[in-house]
Design goal:
mainly alpha, 79% helix
């Protein structure tokens, strides 16, 4: 049984990971004059460079454990969890706002748990029904808010932003489920090395993104804008991708899987906090209701998932 000390240490690591991951939602606002394609290319080129540098001293020994199947898996996971996800997320933030995008992504723990309910021995789906209803209500609240923002002119492309955010949610849900299944059967590669290898694969995809951005994006930026872009890209890559992922892996070792998945809610709460501070405002009634419903959804999901664990001493 997991000790109370390990549980609190794991929750602390999950909280700090969420604090670093929440920066991802603010980055598109800090470099708003760059397209989502450019933002994704910059972040993941930096992520790939950091990952290669950290793996360099052990490169040969790590590669000895990788075959064609592992590299194909890393490429697919990198696309779902990083490249495609971040392009959609950045589009959601720029067109619909930080609050709307972060609340939609906050539905992730419930999505992953719902898919996991079909696994052998998992909690039955009917026990998760209250959580799913609350989560759907949260998404409905923020969807209504985004449409009202479009009507008010605050975010004229809010509906498209909501579509991007929903796509990002689907992409990262697929990544979370598939990555968890790969980690479960990879006993010869550590979780930390797997994360860094994902960074290497993501960096390779970022080269393609950068070439595509050079052809598709026509905007011209001055030297201060490029300096800000490079600083944001390096900062998000270092703190969110390297440090945040390391903290997440540590939390994953300390906490049972039924609890660690719910730690993702900290990412959403920190993203909302950063967004409200950036926009210098309090949450609207619809946003506050969505946050409350999202928290209730996650707590209900935790309760349904963990009750059997506490029926014995």
């Amino acid at each position: 049984m997991t000790s109370h000390r390990n549980i609190w240490l794991g929750v602390g690591c999950g909280l700090l990971a969420g604090a670093f991951w929440g920066l991802v939602f603010l980055a598109p606002e800090l470099a708003s004059d760059f397209s989502p394609l450019e933002l994704a290319a910059g972040r993941y080129l930096a992520y790939g460079a950091f990952a290669v540098a950290l793996l360099a001293p052990r490169w040969r020994s790590v590669l000895a454990h990788l075959g064609r199947r592992e590299w194909l898996a890393l490429s697919g996971l990198s696309l779902l969890g990083n490249t495609l996800y971040y392009v959609l997320l950045a589009g959601g933030v720029q067109m619909g706002g930080v609050a709307m995008t972060s609340v939609v992504i906050g539905f992730l723990p419930v999505m992953v748990t719902t898919i996991g309910a079909f696994d052998h021995g998992a909690v039955r789906l009917r026990k998760l029904a209250p959580s799913l209803v609350l989560g759907a209500a949260a998404v409905a609240c923020i969807g209504w808010q985004s449409l009202r923002s479009a009507a008010d002119g605050a975010h004229p492309q809010a509906a498209l932003g909501l579509l991007c955010a929903t796509g990002a949610l689907a992409s990262w849900t697929a990544y979370a489920v598939l990555n968890g299944r790969w980690l479960a059967k990879l006993d010869h590669i550590s979780a930390g090395d797997w994360s860094l290898l994902t960074g290497v694969a993501t960096g390779a995809q970022a080269v393609v993104l950068a070439l595509l951005a050079a052809v598709v994006v026509t905007g011209v930026h001055d030297a201060p804008a490029w300096a800000r872009f490079l600083a944001v890209s390096a900062g998000v890559a270092l703190f969110a991708s390297i440090v945040g992922n390391a903290l997440w892996n540590h939390a994953s070792r300390l906490l049972p899987m039924t609890l660690v998945g719910q730690m993702i809610v900290f990412e959403t709460l920190f993203a909302l906090t950063y967004g409200f501070l950036w926009e210098a405002r309090a949450p609207t009634l619809a946003e506050a209701a969505a946050i409350a419903l999202m928290l209730a959804s996650v707590l209900t999901c935790v309760s349904a998932h963990r009750k059997p664990e506490f029926t014995h001493a």
